[in-house]
Amino acid sequence: MNPATRTAGAATRRRRLGSVGWHLAAVALLAVILYPVVWVVSASFKPSGSIVGSLELFPQDPTLGNYQRAAEGMAGISVLRFFWNSAVLAVLAVVGTVASSALAGYAFARLRFRGRTVLFVLMISTLLLPFHVLIVPQYAVFQNLGLVDTYVPLLAGKFLAAEAFFVFLMVQFMRGIPHELDESARIDGAGPWGIFWHVVLPLSRPAMVTTAIFTFIWTWNDFLAPLIYLSTPDKYPLPLALQLYIDQTTLSDYGALMAMSMLALLPVIGFFLFFQRLLVDGVATSGLKG
Fold first, then answer.
1. What is the 3-state secondary structure (H, E, C) of 227-264?
2. Which CATH architecture has domain 74-285?
3. Confidence (pTM)
4. CA distance 242 to 246
5. Domains of the chain: which residue ranges?
């Protein structure tokens, strides 16, 4: 065997070993990431008394009693009520965020007006402001308006383009739409509203779907904001309703808690899988031009 053949064979073996090593590392990382999910799924089928303190990953005696108790609800409230509350909040948040972000993004990306750059910089700078800094003043405002323990504090910002991340996403996407389309529509007699509604908005569907998916997931999983503003259990969304299964003074039903957690994940997973292709398209094309 000549030296060239031996060198090529050694290089091939090194590439194979490197590929095997990368695959093993990826599998190990995947196992670490998926372990909490597998644990929750397994715990939802364990008896409530064997969840906390048990080292077993898989249940020895699987039971569906946890899901039966979860379906019965808690504190005299049906589980369907909690799902309905979360669905109302998530759907309204999606509608408000998509509509307001699209309008604000169109103004920043396609219209020319005095102070546009300054306003855009101020809007982007709000991304650096932590949400926790605003909790006290926002709560004081809504309390003085008598809106605490309602859904208004949770949804008002969604309809006022207060989500700077999604406004920025819309701006970046709309800047990539050719301006020649605006000129053609203007020649046909369309004004700014007509250009937005008939030209820019239909072409911005990937960015709008991306905004809708992230808004739905974040709103559905939000725990802190409902915890601050809601005090009536009948108005709780699912993340806040989960705490009803944990009682520090009496017994806690960890089995029903795990079962409810699994049921709460199903709408999010279904929503993501249904719009997955459009989500990838929106993320891939939103930053092409800026």
1. HHHCCCHHHCCHHHHHHHHCCCCCCCCHHHHHHHHHHH
2. Orthogonal Bundle (1.10)
3. 0.82
4. 8
5. 1-36, 74-285
